[in-house]
User: What shape does this take?
Amino acid sequence: MSSVTNSTRSDLEKDSSSDDLGAARKIIVIGATGSLAASVIEASKSLKDTELTLFVRDKRRLSDPLADGCKVVEGDALKYENIKGAIAGHDVVYVNLAGDLETMGNNIVKAMKETGVKRIVAISSIGIYETSLRPVLKPYRKLADIIEASGLDYTILRPDWFTNSDEVDYALTRKGEPETGSAISRKSIAAFIRTIFENPDLHRNENLGISKP
Assistant: This one.
């Protein structure tokens, strides 16, 4: 298990920001109206040379401050052509969805392959590898399985329960290791995801639990 706190996080971000990609990096947030997605968007708005696209079913659910400075695309992740059109031209796809994750996950993977987009960061859930899998977690397990088998460059995150605490303090566990820690702030998860947006080579092809140590 690795732990990152406020003091070490700044060093990590400093290292990752040295990656110079030249043209603006284009990131699409699929499921942008969720509470965690909102934290990720807010944390990522200040990234240099980065353009954010927010994919939502109903743009009226987005607050004006959150959408400010972002491109907003209205569509349904259950409809393949909606997803394909939205993903085309982006560098990183961030997935923060609930519901029929098998259908949406398959649509996203297919669209990424057909449009040549390689990098995906997806939110699953703590507990998806328990022997007696609770029904509520089955869609999140399915999403993780689809992405791991996709051949894309992925990072899967399995967060503990979310809190609104104003802190950045997180620990990571890799797939196969016991999931430890406790409920984690949305701000902590958003800070971690921001580091991946800054340097997409970080945690490539890793399936990680994230919680408060």
